[in-house]
Amino acid sequence: MSEMSDTRGASRMSGDAEERHVEVHAVYRHFKGHYYYVEALATDSETLEDMVVYRKLYGDGGLWVRPARMFLSPVDTVKYPDASQKWRFERVEL
Asked: What tens digit of pLDDT does each residue of 37-88 get?
């Protein structure tokens, strides 16, 4: 799989079946049910890996960071066989 950042600020991942990307200033639902707001995309200074900076929309509203490849990855259906989503994070309209 390959990743890249385009000029619109979206990190992309191309897989076998479809291309996915992260949209900044959008809300995503984690497969376990909570909602998150993507604040920004960043680059890890050591590895140059694309990172997603996102905020919890519940609890303390904490700020988190995760590699874009992981943010865009499918749910591990072996570990979570009852997951109702295909992707770890899916964009939602509120």
From this structure: 999 999 999 999 999 999 999 999 999 999 999 999 999 999 999 999 999 9
Q: Is the dihedral of CA 32, 13, 2, 74 positive or negative?
A: positive
Report which secondary-structure segment, H or E, holds 68: helix 68-71
pTM for the whole structure: 0.80
Question: Options 3.30.450.40, 1.10.1660.10, 3.40.50.1950, 2.30.30.320; which CATH number does 26-92 get?
Answer: 2.30.30.320
CA distances from 73 to 32, 45, 47, 68 (A): 14, 22, 19, 8
Nearest alpha carbon to residue 72 among 51, 43, 48, 92: 51
